[in-house]
Amino acid sequence: MNTLAKRIIPCLDIRDGRTVKGVNFVDIRDAGDPVELAQRYSEQGADELVFLDITASHEKRKLLKELVEKVAASISIPFTVGGGVSELQDADVLLSAGADKVSVNSAAIMNPTIIDQLAKQFGSQFVVVAIDARLESGQWQVYRNGGRIPVGRELFEYAREMQERGAGEILWTSMNHDGTQNGFANETLSELGQSLSIPLIASGGAGKTEHFADVFTNGKADAALAASVFHYDTIPIPVLKEYLKNMGINVRI
What we know:
With 253 residues, the chain is an alpha/beta fold. The chain contains ten helices and twelve strands. The chain has one domain: Alpha-Beta Barrel (TIM Barrel), CATH 3.20.20. It is 35% helix and 28% strand. The protein has an eight-stranded parallel beta barrel, surrounded by six helices.
């Protein structure tokens, strides 16, 4: 899998129709209009886009379908949508609204067979399982509902189960690193990636260009997802890709 180009993926966390960003899953602040940001990232050369309605599961709401349609219409790159996906019908709605993949988090924990069903109905390449985990007493504990509720599962065994059930990719966010901009959880990423045969997307901790080089070389991630550094233009995507290319990392320019 190492011969494939490494992917740079901006993430739009959506709340009440706006893009927001927090630190360690709290202290949420506004980061702009999702349609404008999506368009900018598509034009700048992002490889994919992830769109997460971060309060959908918590508030038992369905996704903002109209917003998904607007974003999909304004970009020309693959688009993953998550938040409140709990049944096949939700995924069907997203596909028709323009999503290329769905991201499932809380529902996969509550009802793991949803992953089997989605993979069977739409194909594994359509299914991304998002996992939020926090390092506690030497073990990575999985959380649900936007990092609010611990579920008593360990990251590695849970990720392997999701792969076996048909997930096409794992998107892992380190809650310890999220929003801190101090770098990704590279050691754990490398171990987790080696225990899986499907692509691993790293999330949580991007703060400077070096962190992306580290996550691809030391963390062995297939893709790196970030939010703040892109939303506030700390790291423009073209600059990042040029840097990675100069570091000998295979990226699409």
